[in-house]
Amino acid sequence: MRRHDPVRPAVILDVRELDELTRSRIEGSLFIPMSLLGARLFEVPKDRPVLVICASGSRSVNVVGHLLASGWTDVANVAGGISTWERMGLPVTRGPVQPGEGRLPG
After folding, report:
1. What b/e string do you get for 23-43 counting C-beta neighbours within 10 Å, with b at 16 or more?
2. What is the helix (H) or strand (E) element at residue 19, kind and residue range?
3. Which listed residue (21, 26, 53, 54) is catalytic?
4. pLDDT at 91
């Protein structure tokens, strides 16, 4: 996976459950709980890099394996999950998830 590609910006796929998202989430992420991934796999683009995140990195590493086995090629785990993201001082949004938030445009 390339570091940054302005032509094909990475999609951050957050696989945490809805109640976890109210505590903190990354603006612009695609929210698909791991429990619903099978039914919503079609929402994950194959033509862009995908960074998968959860709370600690455990669920997301499993999802990375599932995506790779299902034909995605440019996929990576966000090691340490949202907790490490926050410890690094990277931006998050807090509070209730708004209607339409967590879906990709188009």
Report:
1. ebbbeebbbbbbeebeeeeee
2. helix 18-21
3. 54
4. 94
